[in-house]
Write a structure and sequence with these properties.
This protein has 136 residues and is α+β, with helices and mostly antiparallel strands. It has helices at residues 25-40, 45-52, 125-131; strands spanning 2-9, 54-55, 58-65, 74-81, 88-96, 102-111, 113-114. The chain contains 3 helices and 7 strands.
């Protein structure tokens, strides 16, 4: 299992009329966490697309809201890759506030798709190589 953490600060533009983080912004927070989790592995999502020729579209998004986040809250997003990917990759998320209260949790499932053909493919060896040490 691979675990990474990212800190986020809620911006005013991310809140709704009630002062809560607008529910749709959690998907953006998850994306930020995914990209940063891969970056911490020394793996660039941009390089995956441009150099390896593989894209990772989201197939599934699940979110469970437990408590709201508010403007200027500092959030800690924990990203978990629970299993070594094959043709799909699952990311799990837990979002905490500064008091360590669990505000939100969820998961996404992404597929590996060949950029040229648009067809599904296996996990690129470059990504598998950096993840493998966490699954031994």
């Amino acid at each position: 299992m691979y675990v990474a953490e990212t800190k986020l600060r809620v911006r005013y533009a991310e809140t709704d009329q009630m002062g809560y983080v607008y529910y749709g912004n959690y998907a953006t927070y998850y994306e930020i966490g995914r990209v940063e989790a891969l970056r911490r592995l020394g793996f660039s999502y941009r390089a995956l697309e441009e150099e390896v020729g593989v894209m990772m579209p989201v197939l599934e998004l699940h979110v469970q809201y437990k408590a709201p986040a508010f403007y200027d809250d500092e959030l800690r997003l924990q990203v978990i890759i629970p299993e070594l990917p094959q043709s799909r990759m699952r990311f799990e998320y837990k979002l905490y506030n500064a008091d360590e209260r669990l505000l939100n949790e969820g998961y996404t499932t992404l597929a590996f798709v060949n950029k040229s053909s648009g067809r599904p493919c296996r996990v690129p060896e470059e990504l598998k190589k950096v993840l493998l040490p966490y699954f031994k």
